[in-house]
């Protein structure tokens, strides 16, 4: 039985990335990143940060996807983050039923924030 999927991002400076996720997104962690690894939590979700290791070398991040964070107040998140991070695209409504925006973290990973668009009740 699978219990969770926890993304692990390889970063060149774990303490710096840890500080960014704490300060900008409000994640918590009991670690300081000095061991080259840290787990962060917020609102029941988890994220791991790890330094590059001997198996991988110092390659640039090769992750080609994004981390998609579903949230309850996407407009509130947008208000808070639009001046705190580099924006990929501003908040907008999409035909597939989501209101979302995207930013880049301090290492260039794409973070998308989205919320289902409220549908009006049928008369």
Automatic annotation (TrEMBL):
Record's protein name: VOC family protein
Lineage: Bacteria, Pseudomonadati, Pseudomonadota, Gammaproteobacteria, Lysobacterales
Gene3D superfamilies: 2,3-Dihydroxybiphenyl 1,2-Dioxygenase, domain 1
InterPro entries attached to this UniProt entry: Glyas_Bleomycin-R_OHBP_Dase (IPR029068), Glyas_Fos-R_dOase_dom (IPR004360), VOC_core (IPR037523)
Residue ranges occupied by any VOC domain in the UniProt entry: 3-116
Organism: Thermomonas aquatica
